[in-house]
């Protein structure tokens, strides 16, 4: 962390703790320079960073003042889904969200796409270019069903940070984390079986279960500590559940990191009831605190945890490079991989392996963690500023997803339809439930560039939410109330 970032963090903490109140004038640049023994330019950079986060406001010839703000909204309470096996629905809504990505004029506030514009990713482009210029025959041929050995070696080394002791032979490279989850689910379940999931949970996982004819039982989940172990145990006693799927680190969409003690308790429960744990760790590397959190796989001694991950959220989703460490299910996963997609594309595997080997991966990770944490501060401020009172907002500990819960009667589906007139797309909460629950919730992606356009989009969403909460006439659209305001043009 640079000097100006350290100073900005210190000042932000003082504001958060109430040492500097809203509307209060902050110390002058010169006095802070003398107090902390740093240059005037360092103080100016720190103040500029706080201004970007909208924690402070400059006033001509008067200095900097703490921005008055609303009190923090509470975090969402523990969810209360119907705790019985159900068939997954919502495919049409998921398909609509996927298709909306093709509209370049629409600002995707709810997508699951990371920021791929940072300069730390440039070495990857150079590596891809060099591999193409070398005309290596390996890139045009089938590879080992396990995946490129060089990449599996690097993945095994990276797994050490999460507490895992894996060898390259423990790892199977897949076409993204989506395939890793797909082969893991089929390795432990048959059509008609029941799987327990966190609620809410990633819609891609839900639709995979739907496609395989597997029923889902949604387990209440806390936005701070994760899946309710008490509710899960009751479900395991009542239903013939074959596995549980969890995203314990930087959860999508709630953002929590499950405490280690609860991870161990979950593993003990899985051993007691003899079920598998499918662990989605695709966001784990993006935890804001260092060292990154342990995986449940790191605690697994009998091979019942299938660890799934990828570079889709850390580097770029278009690379389609993921992996699974399936433990005791290795042979089954290999067979399913073979009859499904066969080997994974070679060029991107080689490129990712070389990117990591050359030492570019860790600097990129550090950059993205700082970038997303900074964006979280800014987006949280925007939500507090533009959205009405009476909402709950998650406090992510990593990744780039934010979950917002509105009053029970709110219809986010209708909100999304209205927002299309302003060329804005959100992810409606019902996508993250097997039965269509959470219609009053939405997921926001804060990896987006911090620009006036993005802030204006949040303002439009917030205004639409406020109107709906005071029962504005159903005929009033977002574009009408905003005076035809649109992000297009």
TrEMBL record:
Gene3D superfamilies: Aspartate Aminotransferase, domain 1 (3.90.1150.10), Type I PLP-dependent aspartate aminotransferase-like (Major domain) (3.40.640.10), Winged helix-like DNA-binding domain superfamily/Winged helix DNA-binding domain (1.10.10.10). The keyword Transcription regulation applies. CDD domains: AAT_like, WHTH_GntR. SMART domains: HTH_GNTR. Residues 1-69 form the HTH gntR-type domain. One of its GO terms (molecular function) is pyridoxal phosphate binding. It comes from the Bacteria. InterPro entries: Aminotransferase_I/II_large, HTH_trans_reg/aminotransferase, PyrdxlP-dep_Trfase, PyrdxlP-dep_Trfase_major, PyrdxlP-dep_Trfase_small, Tscrpt_reg_HTH_GntR, WH-like_DNA-bd_sf, WH_DNA-bd_sf. Pfam families: Aminotran_1_2, GntR. PANTHER family: HTH-TYPE TRANSCRIPTIONAL REGULATORY PROTEIN GABR (PTHR46577), TRANSCRIPTIONAL REGULATORY PROTEIN (PTHR46577:SF2). This is GntR family transcriptional regulator.
């Amino acid at each position: 962390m640079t000097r100006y970032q350290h100073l900005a963090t210190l000042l932000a903490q003082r504001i958060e703790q109430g040492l500097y109140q809203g509307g209060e004038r902050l110390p002058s640049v010169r006095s802070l320079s003398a107090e902390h023994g740093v240059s005037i330019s360092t103080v100016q950079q720190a103040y500029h960073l706080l201004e970007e986060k909208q924690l402070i406001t400059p006033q001509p010839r008067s200095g900097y003042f703490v921005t008055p703000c609303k009190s923090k909204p509470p975090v969402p309470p523990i969810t209360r889904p119907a705790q019985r096996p159900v068939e997954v629905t919502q495919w049409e809504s998921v398909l609509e969200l996927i298709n909306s990505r093709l509209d370049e004029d629409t600002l995707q506030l709810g997508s699951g796409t990371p920021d791929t514009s940072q300069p730390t990713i440039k070495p990857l482009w150079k590596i891809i270019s060099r591999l193409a210029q070398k005309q290596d025959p390996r890139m045009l041929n089938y590879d080992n069903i396990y995946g490129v050995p060089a990449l599996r070696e690097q993945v095994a080394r990276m797994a050490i940070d999460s507490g895992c002791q894996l060898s390259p032979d423990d790892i199977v490279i897949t076409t993204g984390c989506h395939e890793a989850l797909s082969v893991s689910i089929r390795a432990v379940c048959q059509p008609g079986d029941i799987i327990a999931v966190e609620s809410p949970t990633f819609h891609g996982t839900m639709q995979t279960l739907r496609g395989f004819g597997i029923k889902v039982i949604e387990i209440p989940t806390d936005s701070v500590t994760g899946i309710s172990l008490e509710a899960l145990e009751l479900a395991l006693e009542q239903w013939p559940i074959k596995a549980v799927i969890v995203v314990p680190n930087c959860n999508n969409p709630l953002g929590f990191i499950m405490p280690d003690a609860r991870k161990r308790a979950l593993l003990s429960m899985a051993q007691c009831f003899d079920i598998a744990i499918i662990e989605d760790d695709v966001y784990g590397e993006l935890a804001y605190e260092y060292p990154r959190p342990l995986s449940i796989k790191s605690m697994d001694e009998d091979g019942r945890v299938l660890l799934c991950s990828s570079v889709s959220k850390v580097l770029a989703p278009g690379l389609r490079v993921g992996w699974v460490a399936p433990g005791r299910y290795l042979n089954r996963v290999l067979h399913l991989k073979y009859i499904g997609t066969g080997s994974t594309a070679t060029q991107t595997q080689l490129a990712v392996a070389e990117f990591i080997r050359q030492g570019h991966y860790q600097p990129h990770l550090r950059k993205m963690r700082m970038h997303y944490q900074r964006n979280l501060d800014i987006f949280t401020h925007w939500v507090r500023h533009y959205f009405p009172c009476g909402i709950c907002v998650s406090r992510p500990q990593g990744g780039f997803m934010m979950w917002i819960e509105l009053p029970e009667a709110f219809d986010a589906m209708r909100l999304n339809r209205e927002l299309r007139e302003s060329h804005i797309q959100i992810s409606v909460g019902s996508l993250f439930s097997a039965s269509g629950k959470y219609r009053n919730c939405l997921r926001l992606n804060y990896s987006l560039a911090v620009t006036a356009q993005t802030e204006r989009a949040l303002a439009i969403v917030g205004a639409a939410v406020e109107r709906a909460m005071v029962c504005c006439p159903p005929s009033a659209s977002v574009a009408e109330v905003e005076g035809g305001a649109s992000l297009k043009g």
